[in-house]
Design brief:
The structure is a single chain. Helix content is 43%, strand content 18%. By secondary structure, it is α/β, with parallel strands linked by helices. The strands form two sheets. Strands 1-2-5-6-7-8-9-10 form an eight-stranded mixed barrel, surrounded by six helices. Strands 3-4 form a two-stranded antiparallel sheet. The chain is globular, with a radius of gyration of 19 Å. The chain binds ligand C2E and magnesium ion (3 copies). One magnesium ion binds next to loops.
Length: 276
C-alpha cells in the first residue's frame, strides 16, 4: 500500500461508481475542506488547430490531491461534488483560476459544467463576476456542457443556452457520440461546437470504415453549422484521420497532456507543433 501523507502519489485508480457509500462520504468531507482552502488545482490541456497544429485553446481540468488518498480521479470527485452540493463552488473555483490564467494568454479557454450547473440562476452572475475580475474577454471562454444538461429539461435548455451566449461566451457539447443525440433536438440548440467523445476514437481506429464514419460525424456537424473538435487523440495516425475527416480542432495526449498553467505558458511562447 502507498505511504500515507507525504507528497503527491498515486494510490491506484478508484472508478467513480465503485467507491462505496462510506468512501464517498469521506471524500465529500475532505473535498469540502479542500474547497474552503481553495486547494483544488486546475491543469490545462492544449487544443490545436487541426491544420496548423498551433495551440488555439486549452481545456481547464480540475485536479485534487487529497491529504489521505493522493490524487483522486476527477470522475470520482466530480460526481461526489455533484451529490454533496459542492459542484457550484468547485466550478466557480475552477472557472476563476482558468480565467486568470487564460487572461494572460491569447487562446480560448474551455471549462466543464456539470449537468445541473447552468440551471442555477446564480451561475450567470458568478460567470460575469469572474470575467470582470480576470479581464478575460467573454468570447474567449467556452463552456462545455453534456447531454445530461440537455436531458434535464429539454424545453428550457435552449433558453438557458441562449442567455449564456448572449453574454458572449461560447458553448460546446462535450462527449458527443455517447448519448441520445436526437438530431431534431440538437438542431434547435444554440451551440457553437461539438466535441467528439474519445470513446468514439477507440471504436473507429482499426476499422475499415473508420474514415467514412468520422467524416459522417463531421458532416452531421456541418449540417448543424457546428465545427467538430476531436478529443483523445493519442497518435499521429488518429490525428491524420480526424483532420482528413474534417475535424477543425484536435485535443489529446499526442498534442499534450494536461499541465500546470506555468508549463502551458512556456509552451505558448514557442507555439508550434510537437516535435515528432
Ligand atoms: P472531459 O471534459 O471529456 O475531459 C477530457 C478527459 O479526457 C480528461 O480527463 C483528459 O485528461 C482526458 N484526456 C485528454 N486527452 C486524452 C487522451 O489522449 N487519451 C486519454 N485516454 N485521455 C485523454 P480527466 O481530467 O480525468 O477528466 C475527466 C472528466 O471529468 C472530464 O471529461 C469532465 O467531464 C470531468 N471534469 C474534469 N474537470 C472538471 C471540472 O472542473 N468541472 C466539471 N464539472 N467536470 C470536470
Ligand atoms: Mg470537457
Ligand atoms: Mg469530453
Ligand atoms: Mg466528460
Amino acid at each position: 500500500a502507498a505511504k500515507a501523507g507525504g507528497k503527491r502519489q498515486w494510490r491506484g485508480y478508484e472508478p467513480a461508481m465503485d467507491a462505496g457509500r462510506d468512501t464517498r462520504h469521506q471524500i465529500a468531507v475532505e473535498l469540502r475542506a479542500a474547497l474552503q482552502q481553495d486547494a483544488i488545482d486546475v491543469c490545462f490541456q492544449p487544443i490545436v488547430d487541426a491544420r496548423s497544429e498551433h495551440i488555439v485553446a486549452a481545456e481547464a481540468l480540475a485536479r485534487w490531491t487529497s491529504p489521505t488518498r493522493g490524487m483522486v480521479d476527477p470522475a470520482l470527485f466530480i460526481s461526489v461534488a455533484e451529490e454533496a452540493g459542492l459542484i457550484s463552488e468547485l466550478t466557480r473555483q475552477v472557472m476563476r483560476k482558468a480565467a486568470r490564467a487564460a487572461a494572460k494568454w491569447d487562446i480560448s479557454i474551455a471549462v466543464n459544467l456539470s449537468a445541473a450547473e447552468a440551471w442555477d440562476a446564480r451561475f450567470a452572475d458568478s460567470l460575469l463576476a469572474i470575467l470582470a475580475d480576470s479581464g478575460l474577454p467573454a468570447n474567449r471562454l467556452e463552456l462545455e456542457i453534456t447531454e445530461g444538461f440537455l436531458l434535464r429539461d429539454a424545453d428550457n435548455a435552449r433558453e438557458i443556452l441562449s442567455e449564456l451566449r448572449a453574454l458572449g461566451v461560447k458553448v460546446a457539447l462535450d462527449d458527443f457520440g455517447t448519448g441520445f443525440a436526437s438530431l431534431t433536438y440538437l438542431r434547435k440548440l444554440p451551440l457553437d461546437r461539438l466535441k467528439l467523445t474519445r470513446e468514439f476514437l477507440g471504436e473507429i481506429v482499426g476499422e475499415d470504415n473508420s474514415r467514412s464514419l468520422a467524416a459522417a460525424i463531421v458532416q452531421l456537424g456541418d449540417s448543424l453549422g457546428l465545427p467538430v473538435t476531436a478529443e483523445g487523440v493519442e497518435t499521429a495516425e488518429q490525428a491524420a484521420l480526424l483532420r482528413d475527416a474534417g475535424c477543425t480542432r484536435l485535443q489529446g495526449w499526442y498534442y499534450g497532456k494536461p499541465v500546470a498553467a506555468a508549463h502551458l505558458t512556456r509552451r505558448l511562447k514557442q507555439n508550434v507543433a510537437p516535435a515528432v
